[in-house]
Write a structure and sequence with these properties.
2 strands; two-stranded antiparallel ribbon; mainly alpha
Amino acid sequence: MLAVAGMSVSAYLTYSHYADQSIMCAGLSGCDAVENSEYSKLVGIPVALMGALFSAGLLALALSRMARLPLAEEWAPLAAFSMTLSGVAFAAYLTYLELFVIEDICIWCTTFAAIVTVAWLITLVDVLALARE
């Protein structure tokens, strides 16, 4: 469910980026400033698109585990933990940029960071439970 939520947020931001449309920001003004900043792309790729691909990867891992694909029980939890740990680190970096460099907050970006953080906590519990077995 978190992967789908992350994909939804990222898909909206990616669409807004490519359609060159203003982002609905729930009465806040920071979304467009963040979206139009020099930090909204990494090597020419919108960060929002990277978020969508990240979420799709997490969804693929979850589905492979649910389908009990060969080896998925062994490697999917660790792969998901590694991905979400990297995602939390990148989200923290982006949040730092929002707060201290851009000096604006995008509620959509903050929502995605929260989704990634919750996903990381879930994968951490999952990996710790598997380590106890």
